[in-house]
Design brief:
Elements lengths: L5 H8 L1 H6 L5 H30 L10 H21 L4 H5 L1 H14 L6 E4 L2 E7 L2 E3 L1 H20 L6 H20 L4 H18 L3 H21 L1 H11 L10 H13 L11 H4 L9 H34 L3 H25 L17 H18 L24 H11 L1
Antiparallel strand pairs: 1-2, 2-3
Length: 419
C-alpha cells in the first residue's frame, strides 16, 4: 500500500496562509509609500499654514502648535486603523456591510440631536465624543461604499435601466445624501456621488444609462445650488472671480494670488504672506494655495504627481483582483480619494467652484484623515488576497479549459502526437 506523502499534504493545506504571508505587490507598496509621504507632508504644511493663525487667537490658547497637536492625534488613530485593516480579510466587509451602513446612518441622524451634535458656522456636522470631535458624514462615505458594492455584487450583473438603479441603490444613496444635505454639506454629497458613479462604471453599467444619471444629477445639483444664496454666490464667484473679489470670490482670488506669488520654486517653506491675514481656511480647504506660494510650481506639480501615482496604484489593485466585491470596493475607495483631490485642487486653482472638500491627507481634518487612512488599509488588504496572485501554470494534457476549448495550436499538436 502506497503511503501518503505528509509533506505534500502540508503544502496543500498551507496554501492559503502562504498566500496571505506573501510579499506585497508593487502597487500596494507604492500606495503605502505615497500615503506615508502625503501624510507626513500634510502635517508639515498644516503647521506652516496654521501656526500664525493659532498664535494670534485666544480660542487656541495662542499656541502655534495647536493644530499640529490635534492633527497628530487623529493621524495616529488613522494609521492604527489602517494597519489593523491591512490584516483583516477584505471579504469580511461584505458580511458586515449592513451593520457598517446602519451605524453610519445613526451618526448622520445624531448630529441633529441637541446635546450630542455640535453646530459651527451654521452647520450641524459634528459629534462630540469626550475630548474628540468626529464628522459622521465622513464615515458615511465608507458605509455607502460597502453597501453599494455589496448590492452590485449580489445582482450578479450591472443595472440595465433607471428603475434597477433607483431600487435599491438610488434609495440608499438618496437617504444618505438627504441626511448630509440637511446639515448642510454639499461637498460631501458630491464626493459620495462621484464614488457611486465610479462603482457603476466598474460594475459595467451601460454608457447611455450613465449619461442619463449624470444629466439628472447635474440638474438636481443646479436646483440645490439655486436654493441656497451662498451656493449661488460661489457659482458667480467661479464665473467672474475678479469682478466679485470683494464679495463671494474673495477666497478664490486670494488663493490665486498666493499660487501666482510662488513662481517656479516658491517663497520658501513657512514664508507665505497670504496665510497670515488674507487667505481664509488656509490650513483646511485652501492649503494647496499655501503649498503653491511656499513651494512654487515645482512643489505643486510634485503633489499632483503623488495623487496621480496614488490613482494608478489604487486602480491597479482594483483591476487585478478576481473577486467582484473587492474590485468594486477598491475602485470606489480610489475614486473617492482621488476624486476629492481633483475637486479640491480645481477649486483652489479657480478651475472648479468651491465646494468645501478638503485635500486628502494634507488638509487639516480629523475625520477626513481617519477615513482616508482606513480606505488605504482596505486597499492594501485587498492586494494581499489570494486572488491577486498570478495564476500558476499547470502541466497537463491538452484539452478544454474552464475558459473554453484549448487553443487551436495546442489541439493540432495533440492530434499530431496521437497520430
Amino acid at each position: 500500500m502506497k503511503r501518503a506523502n505528509p509533506l505534500r499534504l502540508f503544502r496543500s493545506n498551507d496554501t492559503a496562509p502562504r498566500l496571505l504571508r506573501r510579499k506585497l505587490p508593487l502597487e500596494a507598496e507604492v500606495l503605502g509609500i505615497v500615503t506615508i509621504v502625503l501624510t507626513v507632508f500634510g502635517q508639515l504644511m498644516v503647521y506652516s499654514a496654521s501656526s500664525a493663525y493659532a498664535m494670534t487667537h485666544s480660542e487656541f490658547n495662542f499656541d502655534s502648535l495647536y493644530f499640529i497637536k490635534t492633527g497628530l492625534l487623529y493621524t495616529v488613530i488613522g494609521v492604527a486603523l489602517m494597519v489593523g485593516l491591512v490584516f483583516v480579510p477584505a471579504g469580511w466587509l461584505r458580511r458586515f456591510a449592513p451593520v457598517v451602513f446602519i451605524v453610519a446612518l445613526i451618526g448622520l441622524v445624531a448630529v441633529k440631536v441637541p446635546g450630542i451634535g455640535v453646530t459651527a458656522n451654521g452647520a450641524a456636522r459634528w459629534l462630540a465624543l469626550g475630548p474628540i470631535t468626529i464628522q459622521p458624514s465622513e464615515f458615511a462615505k465608507i458605509g455607502t461604499l460597502v453597501i453599494v458594492a455589496a448590492m452590485l455584487t449580489t445582482k450578479k450583473r450591472p443595472p440595465e435601466n433607471v428603475r434597477e438603479i433607483l431600487m435599491p441603490i438610488g434609495l440608499v444613496v438618496g437617504i444618505v445624501c438627504a441626511l448630509i444635505m440637511v446639515q448642510p454639506d454639499l461637498g460631501t454629497t458630491i464626493a459620495i456621488c462621484i464614488m457611486v458613479l465610479a462603482l457603476l462604471v466598474v460594475a459595467g453599467t451601460k454608457k447611455l444609462l450613465l449619461a442619463k444619471l449624470i444629466s439628472a444629477g447635474m440638474l438636481l445639483g443646479a436646483l440645490l445650488v439655486y436654493a441656497a444664496p451662498y451656493r449661488r454666490d460661489r457659482i458667480f464667484a467661479f464665473l467672474d472671480p475678479w469682478g466679485q473679489s470683494a464679495d463671494g470670490a474673495y477666497q478664490v482670488v486670494q488663493s490665486m494670488i498666493a499660487i501666482g506669488s510662488g513662481g517656479i520654486f516658491g517663497a520658501g517653506l513657512g514664508s507665505s504672506v497670504q496665510k497670515v491675514n488674507f487667505l481664509p481656511e488656509a490650513h483646511t480647504d485652501m492649503i494647496f494655495a499655501v503649498i503653491g506660494e511656499e513651494l512654487g510650481l515645482v512643489g505643486s506639480i510634485a503633489i499632483i504627481g503623488l495623487f496621480a501615482v496614488f490613482a494608478w496604484a489604487g486602480y491597479t489593485i482594483a483591476m487585478r483582483t478576481a473577486d467582484p466585491f473587492q474590485r468594486l470596493l477598491a475602485a470606489g475607495a480610489t475614486a473617492l480619494i482621488v476624486g476629492q483631490a481633483i475637486v479640491n485642487l480645481g477649486a483652489v486653482m479657480g478651475i472648479l467652484p468651491l465646494t468645501g472638500i478638503p485635500l486628502p491627507l494634507i488638509s487639516y481634518g480629523s475625520s477626513s484623515r481617519i477615513v482616508v487612512l482606513a480606505l488605504v488599509g482596505m486597499l492594501i488588504a485587498i492586494s494581499r488576497e489570494p486572488q491577486m496572485l498570478p495564476q500558476i501554470k499547470r502541466t497537463r494534457a491538452p484539452g478544454p479549459t474552464p475558459d473554453g476549448p484549448a487553443p487551436r495550436a495546442t489541439r493540432r499538436r495533440a492530434a499530431t502526437n496521437v497520430g
